[in-house]
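Dear all,

This email documents one entry for the complex benchmark we are building for the journal club exercise. For each entry we list the sequence lines for every component of the assembly. Then comes the predicted three-dimensional structure of the complex as a token string, followed by one or two observations. Please use this as the template for your own entries, and keep the labels exactly as they appear.
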Amino acid sequence: MNGKPPQSRGLTAIDGAMVLIIVLLVVQIWLLSATLESYLAGHRDAAVPGAIISAILFAACFALYRFVDRIDSEVRKG
Amino acid sequence: MSWFRKPSSAPLWRDEFSVYTADERYVNRRQFTKFLTLTSFGMMVGNLWILAKSALYRQPSGLRAVVATAGEIPVGGVKTFNYPTADDPCILVRTAADSYVAYSQKCTHLSCAVYFERQRHRLQCPCHQGFFSIADGSVLQGPPQRPLPRVALERQGGQLIAIRMEGESV
């Protein structure tokens, strides 16, 4: 059993989610620069997988944001 | 367990500006997370923009332009012209009595203007010492990674006509 109070546990979960979002964002920045470089080089076939993967990464970030939002709401009201 | 925040009857300002110090850590983190998520949205929009540009790109075709008349330039001589638009500088080189080649004049590294180095029979970019083959525009040496786009030429009577770009990047 964890002896931490609920407030601190909520904060740990939020910090973990934030780190995950930052990692996803770094991957997304790299993906955008790689797709742009490829596009400018005339290789237009990289645009479709780039857009799909970027959308998946955004969806993951958004889900984590909703998670943070929910934890925040529950811990502060609980 | 729901992933979404439960509907609250409290006013929005109470969520965003907590009067308790302990709650401030939550508010700060939530707002920072929101900022990161919006940044992620911006990245996705960027990728979708590239996708839209790729889907809408059409290779200009059928555009013909007279570049020079035969004999206008001497063997080893050059002439610059713009093709397919006024913003696209190109270079025409007469490599032999009966042989002409034309390439985009923009270096594929950082778009400096390339020129013909007659002694070594190659195209040179003076900015970062990039060299291209006069035969096919391929990279011989230097920082450029891609060959020069070639202008396809057609001879009609005494005129040299540019008919399309080959191997063109965006």
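Observations: Chain A has two helices and no strands. Helices of chain A lie at 6-40, 47-77.
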